[in-house]
Amino acid sequence: MMAKAISKIKRYEVSREDQVEQDVQEVKEAVADHKDSILKGVELLKALDDEGSLDAMTAFVKAKDETLANVVKEIDKDQYEPLLRNLPELVFLLGEIDMRGIRELSLRLNHGLETMKGRGTTDHTSFLDLAKALKDPEINRSITMLLHFLKGMGK
């Protein structure tokens, strides 16, 4: 005698309340596992909101089609054609730049500008003043760096 074929399969169904309870427990575990990341995300959102960037981003997302159409329309103007033509070269150039060197140069330039602001620029400098200035180690170092830069630029 052969067994009867199974014709009805009763699937185990989880009640809505049980499913909600399981989901809430899963979310609680995820929050516990990633608490630091979630808190950093909240800090980021708060910073974006404090600066008004969150509102701008929200407005952009809500009107993204219109905003992108305006950006494309603006970029399509003749005045931006040279920029768009040179954009790939600019991207490659940025990849070749020594950013640490640029950052150090920028810090030194800013420091030099701040020092210059504190001093009068109407003073007259004589050749003797220049000779005396070369004895100052900071000035001598700066002039030496400038000479090396000019030599390297000339190659």
Describe this structure in words.
The chain is mostly helical. Helices cover 75% and strands 0% of the residues. The protein has eight helices and no strands. It has helices at 16-33, 35-50, 53-62, 64-75, 81-96, 99-118, 127-133, 137-154. It is elongated, with a radius of gyration of 33 Å. The model has no long low-confidence stretch (mean pLDDT 88).
Short descriptors:
about 160 residues, mainly alpha, about 0% strand
Give a short overview.
With 155 residues, this protein is mainly α. The protein has helices spanning 16-33, 35-50, 53-62, 64-75, 81-96, 99-118, 127-133, 137-154.
Distance between the termini: 99 Å
What fraction of the residues are assigned to beta strands by DSSP? under 5%
Structural class, by secondary structure, is mainly alpha
Shape: elongated
Q: How do the strands and helices of this protein lay out in sequence?
A:
Layout (H helix, E strand, L loop, with lengths): L15 H18 L1 H16 L2 H10 L1 H12 L5 H16 L2 H20 L8 H7 L3 H18 L1
